[in-house]
UniProtKB/TrEMBL annotation:
Source organism: Thermoclostridium caenicola
GO cellular component terms attached to this protein's record: outer membrane-bounded periplasmic space
Name of the protein in its database record: N-acetylmuramoyl-L-alanine amidase
Domain MurNAc-LAA stretches: 151-273
Membrane-traversing stretches: none
Source organism, top-level taxon: Bacteria
Keywords: Hydrolase
A Pfam match: Amidase_3
Record-linked SMART domains: Ami_3 (SM00646)
GO function terms (MF aspect): N-acetylmuramoyl-L-alanine amidase activity
Single GO biological process annotation from the record: peptidoglycan catabolic process
Length: 297
């Protein structure tokens, strides 16, 4: 008599009653749910191979960018966007000072070159710049009108700061004129009503002088009060940087050198940045702002 190698299979489940059947179904449901949830977790963890088979993962709706709180404007002040006006001295048929050592070397070319470099540094730093000129041109045919338009541009654009860039010359009819060298910074006090609290053109001149000296190492002859058209007619803190003397041979070599121009431009840009920090300029939604005195002219 042959022996059964395998005993008769017995059914695993006997459907004796409904309760038992329901219990089994429930267990099955639980198992399926557990698998679905587990696969969902796997998908969330980045195992796309396993997840792509079964479950559509839960994708949370994009969270909106949090809106920053509105700017609180202090009493007596107005909110203004930061704008720097850079003025490259002279241009066009006004060459500015002329080299006594080399034909065709003019102030207007140096001032524009430095100003364009300053513009690039500031733009790179996210500081908005407007130039009075970007090419070899002047703004009007007469010097008086040309200077007035430069100041007017800064006023119309509600500039925060105004920087005019020039090259100095000493009158060569005076003995020892060729020995005079170095940088001077001109400023003009615009009276009692200041655009910013505790910040006038003299303070701006000091900041600029220190920043430029630190970068190009030039001898500094000091800040000089000077009733110049662009300084008198601009409403914001303004300085005029006389970078170096074209009439001095050492300074002449500096003005010719790309390195000196670059370092001077970096110094001017750093001075402007430091002045903006002093004015507590701040960024709001990608734009730079300052608070100005409301009653400033
Ligand atoms: Zn000049």
């Amino acid at each position: 008599m042959a022996r059964l190698i395998f005993p008769n299979p017995r059914p695993r489940f006997r459907l004796k009653n409904h309760a038992r059947f329901t219990a089994v179904l429930l267990v099955l449901l639980l198992v399926v749910t557990a698998v679905v949830v587990a696969l969902g977790k796997v998908r969330e963890n980045g195992d796309s191979e396993a997840a792509s088979i079964v479950v559509t993962p839960f994708v949370p709706p994009p969270t909106p960018e949090p809106t920053p709180p509105p700017i609180e404007i202090p009493e007596g002040k107005s909110l203004e966007k930061v704008i720097i006006v850079l003025d490259a001295g002279h241009g066009g048929n006004d060459p500015g000072t002329i080299s006594p050592y080399e034909d065709g070397f003019y102030e207007k070319e140096v001032t524009l070159d430095i100003a364009l470099k300053v513009r690039d540094y500031l733009t790179e730093a996210g500081i908005p710049v407007i130039m009075t000129r970007e090419t070899d041109t002047r703004l009007a045919d007469t010097q008086k009108e040309d200077l007035l338009r430069r100041a007017q541009l800064a006023n119309d654009k509600k500039a925060t700061l105004f920087v005019s860039i020039h090259v100095n010359a000493y009158d060569l009819k005076y003995p020892g004129a060729r020995q005079v060298k170095g940088m001077e910074i001109f400023y003009y006090n615009k009276g009692k009503q200041m655009m910013f609290e505790d910040f006038d053109s003299y303070r701006f001149a000091e900041i600029m002088a220190n920043a430029i000296k630190a970068h190009n190492g030039i001898q500094y002859r000091g800040a000089i009060k000077n009733d110049l058209s662009v300084l008198r007619n601009t409403k914001m803190p303004a300085v005029l940087v006389e970078t170096a003397y074209i009439t001095n041979q050492e300074d002449h070599a500096r003005l010719k050198s790309a390195e000196f121009r670059t370092k001077t431009a970096i110094g001017i840009a750093e001075g402007i940045k430091e002045a903006l920090e002093t004015l507590q300029a701040f960024e709001y939604e990608g734009e730079l702002y300052v608070f100005k005195e409301l009653d400033a002219e």
